[in-house]
Amino acid sequence: MSDEENYIIKNEITDTNKKQEYWNTGIGLNKVDNLEPSKYLLDLSQKNINGELKYNEVENLLKTYYKSQNSSDIIIQKEKECDLVSLRIAMMLEDKSFGFSPITLKNIHKFLFKDIYNFAGNYRDYNITKKEEILNGDTVNYVNYQDIEGYFDYDFKEEKEFDYSKLNKDDFIKHIAKFTSSIWQVHPFGEGNTRTTAVFIEKYFNNMGFSVNNDMFKEYSVYFRNALVRSNYGNIPKGIYPTFNYLVMFFENLLQGKNNELNNNELYVKELFDNNK
Asked: Which CATH topology does 101-277 take?
């Protein structure tokens, strides 16, 4: 991916339905961090969908707009992040180029979050915890920052050499859920990890020839993240074990067109709440 200021898709598609899907996915994925787009972005995105503006023109207009806004206003900061990242997700999903490598994951993060985070495209150099609502404030145990590259070397090598031809559809879904869960749990970036993982995985699916139901990330991005949490959280003394069931249901809907009911309330680990009464 180029370090140039603008990443230009020379021949943008004219399929308004697909463009709408890409924008919906971008805006929807930002909900994992409670970010909502500005009204200005919604207007610009519609002009892009209708062919009135190119992606790079939308980005230039957004940058000009935010230069005139109060940069210390937290609401403005959040809208700026949502607007720019939504645009860049749409661009990345339309661009079908792909390389299966941790380098691609890093470059996706760099592109999505350039001029938003000063660490865009860089692995974290510290350890983290995150208080999860569905875990009543407990955290997933993320990979030690010193082990990030080693974990990725292993995960990507194993996945690259994996023989999918031996799997039926159900086993494929289970396998890809575990791979996605694994790279997410590494949590290589300080912020933007789930959005980066989702874009990488969707581009991976597209590269394998799948037709992805983009409405899933539009409507269920928070469910997707919480399902990743559940796939990586265990508390054996309390009888709680990691489960891939929720992530599998999400991927069945995403890739197979199933209609599993995805209820985010079901992802709350009741044992962690009941014991505090």
From this structure: Fic-like fold (1.10.3290)
